[in-house]
Amino acid sequence: MFNVFKNLWFRNPREQDIFINDIAVRIRAGLLLFIPIYMSFTLYDAVFGTHWVVDGNTAVDTYDTDWDDNIIYAVNAIKRTYDYTVQTWVLWYALFEMIAGMFVFTSRFSPTILIASILASKQEPKWKPLVPKRFAWSLGSTFIIVCLVFFNPDVVAEWINSLFGTNLPTTFNYMPYWIPLILVWVCLGFMWMETVLGFCVGCKIHSLLVMMKVLDEPCEACGNIDWDEIRRKNEERLKREAEAAGNH
């Protein structure tokens, strides 16, 4: 437990090429999976749900019919308004979690990293380089920022207008609804594959960019070398050689 609080999910935080325990990464993805699930239901309700609130108790028969002999009722109906304060704070927390996992220092402020490291401490660690995961979490951060813009178009428009002198509308949502709707389901799928299958889509994209010579990648095979075990075996070999030389 002391090592967990000291190193979290890192093999050694002072290494030049940082490696993290992939078992803890998968556990953390499972802990954060509730966020895209919650956002997917929110977006579904906002996009496909009714935009009107009708009080059925105030329906009044007008004693009139339409051309198809359907009875016409008069009802009190108001335009439905949405308050995305809770969703905005959830998205800010998700963005914090994505950014926190990218660096050693900020990882110590993440509750999910600590919980995942504790839960994974009883299993044999599987070391993976941090760089591909950092790229994957950068993709996740981009998805979250897009959703933040969708839920707060007036605030974002005011910021952009004040900074650049533009005239973005502040009275309606200028972002098409299908953009965050697709991204939240993509994010949900990526996190599910990370949690259940251990398949990191962002890491695979990173590997593809490495193959195209766009990015560099640390040697993962080199990162799995157990240097402590090698040192122990060398010490044992030197000790045997010294004993053999003493016998002669």
TrEMBL record:
Domain DUF4395: 83-210
Pfam families: DUF4395
Chain segments annotated as transmembrane: 31-54, 90-114, 135-157, 177-203
Keywords annotated in UniProt: Membrane, Transmembrane, Transmembrane helix
InterPro entries given in the database record: DUF4395
Protein name from the UniProt record: DUF4395 domain-containing protein
Organism of origin: Thiomicrorhabdus heinhorstiae
